[in-house]
Amino acid sequence: MKIAFLGDVVGRPGRKAVHLWLEENRKEIDLCIVNGENSAAGFGLTEKVAKNLFSYGVDVLTGGNHTFDKKEIFQFIDNYPILRPANYPEGTPGKGYFLIEVKGKKILVISLMGRVFMECLDNPFFVFDKIVEENEADIVIVDFHAEATSEKQAFGFYVDGRATAVLGTHTHIQTADLRILPQGTLYITDAGMCGTVDAVIGMGKEEGIYRFIKQLPVKLKVPEKPERIQVSGVIFEVDENGKVVNFERIFQIYKRSQDGSYTRWKGAL
Description:
It is built from five helices and 14 strands. It is of the alpha/beta class. It is globular and about 50 Å long.
């Protein structure tokens, strides 16, 4: 079974990049999971955007600290395979995990959020324990949305051998530590993002520079019609025993042509 996980989608450019990549690769993939918490203009998720992503071939959308930025999400989050972090307080709208059957295998997808430099939620380590104890699954995939690399690594080792894959999100920069942990869990600190290449974590570089130079608030905007967009993530193959046997990172750039369309880019960053 082949599974693809794509990192944080940032606005329209990120959605376009996901669409292009899935047009090329969806037929080879059995399950596609995407972090969609920044997919609507860089903050949150709307129903229209969610429907678009599902129409491209996305099976499950995971979340993070921006999940509820668009208040309309409260009206539709329970109607789709859209996850918010499972360690939000009990009674929070939405669900923190999703159980799906693919090729006769039960796959448990869990969305969790770290607590270092983030909101003070329930302990994600203990929430993971509770979810896997209460749900029987052949494959367990975790989107661990966190700021601190130390917290992500600690979580990876904590669930090593119990989770099939731990895929970090939130910082939007793909890390170089994709590997199998000692007990068999596939791990990466951050899968990266889908969005504008020449930007500050997907947002306009001018606004990003201004904030750091002036130390003043400024509204961040997703670039319109950027020259280059990217898809980042991980694709991996799981055998009959639920073990990862093959894996590779996804990092594909598309360049804008004069007619406004995007084509695969093979040049250097």
